[in-house]
Amino acid sequence: MTQRLFSAFLLSSALLLVTTPARADKDAVQFGSSIVVPEGQSIHDAVCFFCSVNAKGDIDHDVVVFFGNVHIAHQSKHDVVVFFGTMRADDEAAIGHDVVNFFGSVRLGENVTVGNDLVVMFGGLHAADSANIQGSRVAQPPWIFWPPLLILALIIVIVVREIRASQRRRYLAAYGYPPAPPPPAPPLP
């Protein structure tokens, strides 16, 4: 049974490594290879895993990036969603609907327009004063997330350390200290 599961895992891993990027009509989907939209050209959707999107041209619909960055030079006509990365919009850029970023930062240049809401969770927001956000602006700084997580990690480390120390004391109480190694033999004359 274990051998069959291991074989299935190896086969699926091999297929994942040799797959070609999925493409629909003017959609760009990449895994590990960045998406670049040249100036004067457009794509419909951009979805990127472990890579970045550099859009000097237009994006007609959504941009979704996991573990990468997004650069919008001109316009994205719908949503821009980024997890664990940076979203940057150049001066005079336009985003038609929402901008959502988790665990990253958002930088909006001069006269950038966001059609609906701007949400930045556990990251930084750097927007020019002339940036126009037509919906709600929600920015949750990272210090709200990291201190409780660090305190929880510290508690776990202390508990594990105390459990190991207790087990070590019980072992030594039951069996005593191990015997000392014999002294080294004198050199032969």
Structure described in brief:
The protein is an alpha/beta fold and 189 residues long. The protein contains two helices and 19 strands.
What does this structure look like?
The chain is of the alpha/beta class. It has 2 domains: 18-141, no CATH class; 145-175. 25% of the residues lie in helices and 32% in strands. The strands form 3 sheets. It has a 7-stranded parallel β-sheet with strand order 1-4-7-10-13-16-19, with no helix packed on it.
Main traits of this protein?
2 helices, 2 domains, single chain, six-stranded parallel beta sheet, 189 residues
Task: Furnish the topology, listing elements before pairings.
Layout: H1 2-18, E1 28-31, E2 35-37, E3 42-43, E4 46-49, E5 53-55, E6 58-59, E7 63-66, E8 70-72, E9 75-76, E10 80-83, E11 86-89, E12 94-95, E13 99-102, E14 105-108, E15 113-114, E16 118-121, E17 124-127, E18 132-133, E19 137-140, H2 146-175
Parallel strand pairs: 1-4, 2-5, 3-6, 4-7, 5-8, 6-9, 7-10, 8-11, 9-12, 10-13, 11-14, 12-15, 13-16, 14-17, 15-18, 16-19
